[in-house]
Amino acid sequence: MPTLIESEEHQALRKAVSALGKRYGRDYITQVIAEGRYPTELWQEAAKLGYLGVNLPEEYGGGGGGIAELSIVLEELGASGAPLLMLVVSPAICGTVIARFGTEDQKRTWLPGLADGSKLMAFGITEPDAGSNSHRITTTARRDGDDWLLTGRKVFISGVDHADAVLIVGRTEDARTGKLKPCLFIVPRDAEGFSRSPIDMELSAAEKQWELVLDDVRLPADALVGDEDAGLLQLFAGLNPERVMTAAFAIGMGRYAVSKALEYARERTVWKTPIGAHQAIAHPLAQAHIDLELAKLMMQKAALLYDAGDDIGAGEAANMAKYAAGEACVRAVDQAVHTLGGNGLTREFGLASLIIGARVARIAPVSREMILNYISHQTLGLPKSY
Hints:
Blueprint: H1 8-34, H2 40-48, H3 67-79, H4 86-101, H5 104-116, E1 121-124, E2 140-144, E3 147-158, E4 165-173, E5 180-188, E6 194-198, E7 209-219, E8 224-225, H6 232-267, E9 269-270, E10 273-274, H7 279-307, H8 311-340, H9 352-363, H10 368-379
Parallel strand pairs: 1-4
Antiparallel strand pairs: 2-3, 3-7, 4-5, 5-8, 6-7, 9-10
Helix pairs in contact: 1-3, 3-6, 4-5, 4-6, 6-7, 6-8, 7-8, 8-9, 8-10
């Protein structure tokens, strides 16, 4: 029976990943961002140690674990100030979908490379007119002989410039009903008709955001992942891990911010007393820690349910975890900056950039309002407003 008490193996994994993260730390990520490059050194070392593919099947070079293990990796890297956003995308979303629904050839082609870091896959779902509402996706795939022709646009797609391919969510016409249904396609980065352009972001991150244009991109039949009729089942097999991993990203960031605030509150003195001795400083930091720990419990529950094969239960818990973690992260970062006062806005202390970063956990991959809609309808049984 799964338990929320972490095993010795999980505790050892946390300790090992934390040590790796601290060897790089926030200064490394800041330097990478300033140089406009990708955190290749950390990514490759994490791969060499087996952390990138910890959730992927052993027979394809992975660690044989699940999202529970991968979320530990991302959380601990984040808590050290060196998170890897593409962990959410490449092994968690794309790797999971291919491992669960891909053909044997797709698994052999992609999973070993995703596990050892030699291959990277991005994920394209969001569109200019279809953000949280994935039912409005207009990227369409139509058959042309044995091939597929894919046409559409995607926005806010992370890491495309370093990815070997993008797992694109499109829609195909159901021959029986005429309605459009979601399908997943592997699109190589150099496919003819597939172009990208950077989106100018205020967000400071090593991973750039891109707009993609697919203009009659011709794909072979085996570019389709899984059953053409499975649709939403396959899509949510990737989206539930995405929510768990976004929670891990947020919790790690929040823990890092609180740790920096605690260091400052212990050392900074006013009238010969450390400011951390004052309840106006201490209590909000204690509350931030509690909120992060509560969110972490829900994240662990969601990961355990998903890894146990309970997709419905995992969907509810993953949405709750992402919501709780996003809120806890924003409050933790805000309180950390406030604890440092003016120093919290300086480059020296490196917290100010997290103000924008923390908002991502509220907005992506699905807004907190859409999560509240989901819980209202699916959990509480209230009628829809749309």
